[in-house]
Amino acid sequence: METNPGNIVLTETVNGQAVTLMMIEVWDGLYAPVGVRKPDGDGPFPMVLLASGNGGEGMEWIKDSMRNRAYTVDKLVEAGFACAWTRYRTEVELGYNNGGKLIRDIRQGREMFNRSPLEYEDEIAIADYFKTVPWVDAKRLSMIGMSHGGEMVLKMTSEYHGFAAAIASEPASHEFLALKPDDTAFINEETGLRNIEEMQMAEVDKVRRRIDLTVAMRRIENINTPILVMGRDKDHLQGIFRTSYDLLAESGKNADWVSYDHDYHGYIFPIRGKDGKYILNKVQEEAIAFVIAWLKEKLSVT
Predict the structure, then answer these.
(1) Residue 94: left if φ>0, alpha if ψ -120 to 50, beta else—which one?
(2) Homologous superfamily of 8-298 in CATH?
(3) Spatial contact of 228 and 291, defined as CB atoms under 8 Å apart
(4) Radius of gyration, alpha carbons of the chain
(5) Per-residue pLDDT tens digits for 38-71
(6) Where does 228-279 have alpha helices with state H?
């Protein structure tokens, strides 16, 4: 264990594998937790950052994921990638749309921001940190984001060009696309925030009618990272997933699309059941194998 408070690193054994738990400083001086696995040796290794959901829960979430969401991690490490589950601050409702570009200035010799950083900006800080680590191949850093993590992939690559490739799996990219929900969404009277859990956006035509195409295309225009968008055939947000890909393709971006028929949101990250075995089937095995093959091609990993 490194006891320097500015560089907190703890190694422990999880499921028989060495896992490194780290706290990484983000832009405003706070710390984000990550859990790392890497192949044997000194590297440098191509690296994949993993992100799922809308943030929060801290190191306990990381420890649980390294224990119970490690199937895909294991497969990536076996394929020669270093891999890190990442966590970031909690998503802010419409923070991306309403907050505007983060401006960093100096006042009295210290940094001053026009707003607090958002969760996807924590992920950028984490990515930049790993580019400085000796055992990471900085030119072959990539990311797999699922659900809100998938939307983060689009937000990040729109303004950050440090990834060699990225995967947006089931991207809940309604904010990125500036989508106006229909009456299947409603305002929670107790909090004043939107409840969009059951928003029905399965059809591409419906999604296309409800997005601000000018805003969405302006955001997509800045993307130059190769992106794989992954859908889920019967998901109630499949129209959002597919539209995210369609707009990338229509803009001439380096984008690929694949969709799988599975009943679990987050099929790309199988979870461990109460019996200690992972809950997965052939569809998930095929999807994960496809993801790894796609990353190996884009990152020139043999």
Answers:
(1) left
(2) Alpha/Beta hydrolase fold, catalytic domain (3.40.50.1820)
(3) yes
(4) 19
(5) 999 999 999 999 999 999 999 999 999 999 999 9
(6) 238-250
